[in-house]
Amino acid sequence: MKRAWRLSVVAVLFVGLQALQGGCPIPEPGPLIHDVIDPINDTLSKAVTTLGTESSAWQGTLKDLETKLASDANGLEAKLASDVQALISQIDLVVKDGLQFGQEMFNCQIDIFTTHARIALQNLQNDFLNNWNYKRISNRPHIAHAPIVCSANPDHVNVATWNLSNVLVLSGTDLNLLDTSSPSVVVVRADGSEATLAHMGNRVTNYRFAVNVPAMITQNLLTGVVQLQIQWNGQRVNRNEMPVVSCGMLDGPCCNGVCTTGSSCIHAVCSRCGGFGQACCPSGPACTAGNSNCVSGVCSQCGDVGQACCLSGPACTARNSGCASNRCATCPSPPTPKVQFTKPGERAGPTCFSGTHETRTYGGPCDPGFHRIDPIGLFITDKCDVCTAVALWASSNTSNCTVNIRFDTPGDCTKSITVNLVVSEIQNTGPPPAGCP
Asked: Which residue from 185, 357, 372, 426 has the least number of CB within 10 angstroms?
């Protein structure tokens, strides 16, 4: 027994080292690389030798190995130190595997023997009764053995932290019976419903059954799952149901970037999105609540005075408001025009012989901060049938309120024209917010 146990630990350690070697590319040897690796190699070799000669000290040997390797890793180049740390993690799995072997040896063997003895006794009983045709029954059937799973490594499945290079290993006895009738890998959801997953279990040896948890995770088959079972002819093989820390549920880890209906994967966590104060949705409309925008990753209300302008639909929804500099503001009241210059009763003519043909200038610059209002207020109060007065701005500059009036009257002592001139101005303002009149 001791020799078998010793070989098992050494073999598992070898497999762990092989797995590490297969998972990492072999670096090109650099200057003095062998000198750096020599102490690490010596540490591993001594541990292997100790396990081969002192099997009872296996647990202390492996723990000492972890400690010594951690010490050896200090000061190493980053890539080599990373490989040593990965090696320590693999050795930790070997320790756990060793503890599992110990559990199987010391705890499970009694259960196995009891179960075998009970079935053997029942079959002897049935043979005896059949032989004597007890109660006229001679065909009592034999009770078949069923696989017994004693332990699982690890003893639960945490989807968010599961290493996708590791499978779940069940250990027990009579697992060769799985060859005659394939077992079912069954997942149980929080609502009690069950689903059978095809091709997710493999009998590795007569004593080990591997469950392909990485495939379940990458195919999003563990969404909403709370328990993992192996069923033998409709019954559980494993005595201990294995809990599953699921993924894809609200406020839990995402399943490979996927969440159940009603939530989205945001920063690796399934969260509600799109509502006021919630995270912006990563796909589809960023915000689904009415009058909301995605601001710094959060859906915020928009459209009211003082809030951000909405990016879809009306920019501002408050009455008498418009969008300026991406903020909704109350539309300003229009400024009130005022009279800048007035000239009432301005008359041209009568001129008896030559008539009147002249341009007169009125007013001057507009008040500071104001501009003129079109059209010019020229009101003719009295004129002859052929008399004219035409008003034009003296400059194209709208801040200049100077007006030129061209008067024309005939050479007639009875004909003239009288006008009232009113020049108005209004205060300068910037363009109103978009959407304001």
From this structure: 357
DSSP assignment, residue 272?
-
**Quick check: 389 and 348 in contact, CB under 8 A?**
yes
At 324 the three-state DSSP class reads strand
Helices 33-53 and 78-103: crossing angle in degrees, nearest 10, is 10
Burial class (CB in 10 A: 0-12, 13-18, 19+), 260: middle
Cα separation of 341 and 339, whole Å? 6
Roughly how many angstroms between the first and final C-alpha of the chain, as a whole number?
Answer: 95
- Which segments within 154-266 are labelled E, that is strand? 157-158, 168-173, 184-189, 194-197, 201-205, 208-211, 225-232, 235-236, 242-245, 264-266
Helix or strand holding residue 418 (H, E): strand 417-427
Average pLDDT per block of 10 residues along the chain, 437 residues long: 40 42 45 64 69 57 70 67 70 66 63 71 77 85 79 84 88 75 83 89 85 90 86 64 82 78 82 88 84 87 90 87 91 92 94 92 95 95 92 96 96 94 93 88
Pair 192, 176: CB distance under 8 Å: no
The single residue listed with the structure tokens 């079912």 is: 184
Determine the Cα–Cα distance for residues 197 and 231; give it in Å rounded to an integer. 11
Peptide bond into 344 cis (omega under 30): no
Which residues are within 8 A (CB) of 132 and not within 5 positions of it... i.e. 6 or more apart?
none
Alpha-carbon distance of 98 to 90, in angstroms, equals: 12
pTM of the complete model beyond 0.85: no
